[in-house]
Design goal:
245 residues; four-stranded antiparallel sheet; single chain; 14% helix; 5 helices; alpha+beta; seven-stranded antiparallel sheet
């Protein structure tokens, strides 16, 4: 069956995505959260894909649990039952955001409504995606984010080229080399110059950051490796590069 996992009290641990594109764990939810509109959330999701799960016998189950923490958009896949349909499909990953179930838009839907939309069906069409990583970062005076970014001519957003081990971003978790900085504060990173974004990152003590995960998702090996933790890394292309702070 499909079940709703109980939501964690705030502040809550964020489930660890197991897909190669979102492998690094987010250790703990911040006391503040970045508020995205549903439109921006969908825009900043990566690896968007459609998956069809179809039961061949009455005994088969979709075999996944979903949850949604307070203020979170897009219910997340938090458990896959070994050998059941979702895991065997090899295109459903822990940490996936469920954007749509058949004709139901689920980005802002209550998790119980999403569960009801899945129950009692023999076939469902799912739209899934790797959700963005969003952090509220508070820097001490003269401290650094521990992040290097690069401006790549072929990309609208700034690419992460280094996450300093033990730095503020590393401590927050979820950000890997090859990801894209898509929003800094209220600024769309694609609409600003590299220098202006860099200046913002270096000089703001409190800043909201949103990262779009790299487009590196592929079918999981059979059987799906639910415990995969290898971070997706992309070699940085030529362009302007500098430590953000």
């Amino acid at each position: 069956p499909v079940a709703a996992a109980p939501a964690a009290p705030a502040p809550a641990a964020v489930p660890t995505p197991a897909s190669p594109a979102a492998a690094a764990a987010v250790a703990a939810a911040p006391t503040e959260s970045v508020q995205l509109t549903p439109e921006k959330f969908i825009k900043f999701c990566s690896n968007q894909r459609e998956v069809v799960l179809e039961k061949k016998t009455v005994d088969q189950r979709f075999g996944m649990k979903i949850r949604s923490d307070p203020g979170q958009l897009g219910p997340r896949v938090c458990e896959l039952t070994p050998g059941e349909l979702a895991q065997a499909n090899r295109h459903v990953f822990l940490g996936d955001a469920i954007l749509q179930v058949d004709a139901l838009d689920t980005v802002s839907a209550d998790v119980d409504a999403v569960v009801r939309s899945l129950q009692g069906k023999s076939k469902v069409h799912l739209k899934l995606a790797t959700p963005p990583v969003a952090h509220v970062v508070q820097k001490a005076p003269n401290s650094k984010l521990g992040l290097e970014i690069s401006a790549i001519p072929t990309q609208p957003y700034l690419s992460v080229t280094k996450v300093v081990s033990g730095g503020l971003i590393d401590q927050k978790g979820g950000v890997a080399v090859g990801d894209f900085l898509v929003q800094a504060g209220n600024i769309d990173a694609s609409a600003e110059t590299f220098d202006s974004v860099l200046d913002l990152l270096r000089n703001q003590q409190r800043i909201e950051l949103v990262f779009k995960k790299a487009q590196t998702l592929s079918a999981a090996p059979a059987p799906a490796a639910a415990d995969a933790t290898a971070a997706a890394a992309a070699a940085p292309a030529a362009g302007s590069s500098a430590p953000s702070s």
